[in-house]
């Protein structure tokens, strides 16, 4: 079993899927076997409702986003005015495009962000 299977099982457990005894026991055994293989450093925070480290530490507001000050400043103006124009954000993987837009949506929509936003990403189709 590879690390992506471990992450998928952890996500399923935290979301409430796969709660039957069989999947729960297999997930527990895979966690213990992967912990022994790599010293417990599998990229997940231990405990109930484990999430990947990158998700736990992802910026939640635009003021938390670091880098690309010009783009973040423009997104802050959009958030202040509350007028969302059509935008296209491009760049190499890992530069914060999705995170920046999620922060903007959170500032515009507040608590309703999770219900109101549908994220479509071209990398999902690859």
Number of strands: 0
CATH topology (fold) name of the largest domain: Rossmann fold
- Gap from first CA to last CA: 23 Å
CATH class term of the largest domain: Alpha Beta
User: Which structural class matches the secondary elements?
Assistant: mainly alpha
Mean pLDDT: 74
Radius of gyration: 18 Å
Poorly predicted parts: 14-41
CATH architecture of the largest domain: 3-Layer(aba) Sandwich
Outline type: globular
Could you give a short account of the major beta sheet? none
- Going by CATH, the homologous superfamily of the largest domain would be P-loop containing nucleotide triphosphate hydrolases
Give me a quick take on this structure.
The protein is mostly helical. Helix content is about 50%, strand content about 0%.
Overview of this structure, please?
By secondary structure, the chain is mainly alpha-helical. It folds into two domains: 50 residues, no CATH class; 68 residues, 3-Layer(aba) Sandwich (Rossmann fold), CATH 3.40.50.300. 52% of the residues lie in helices and 0% in strands. The chain has six helices and no strands. The longest helix is centred in the first third of the chain and has 18 residues.
Describe how the helices and strands are arranged.
Layout: H1 3-15, H2 21-38, H3 53-56, H4 69-81, H5 97-109, H6 113-116
């Amino acid at each position: 079993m590879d690390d992506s299977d471990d992450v998928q099982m952890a996500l399923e457990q935290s979301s409430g899927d796969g709660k039957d005894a069989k999947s729960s026991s297999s997930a527990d055994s895979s966690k213990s076997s992967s912990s022994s293989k790599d010293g417990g450093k599998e990229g997940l925070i231990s405990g109930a409702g484990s999430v990947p480290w990158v998700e736990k530490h992802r910026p939640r507001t635009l003021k938390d986003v670091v880098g690309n000050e010009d783009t973040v400043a423009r997104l802050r103006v959009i958030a202040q005015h509350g007028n969302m124009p059509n935008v296209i954000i491009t760049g190499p993987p890992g530069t914060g495009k999705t995170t920046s837009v999620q922060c903007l949506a959170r500032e515009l929509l507040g608590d309703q962000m999770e219900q109101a936003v549908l994220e479509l990403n071209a990398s999902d189709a690859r």
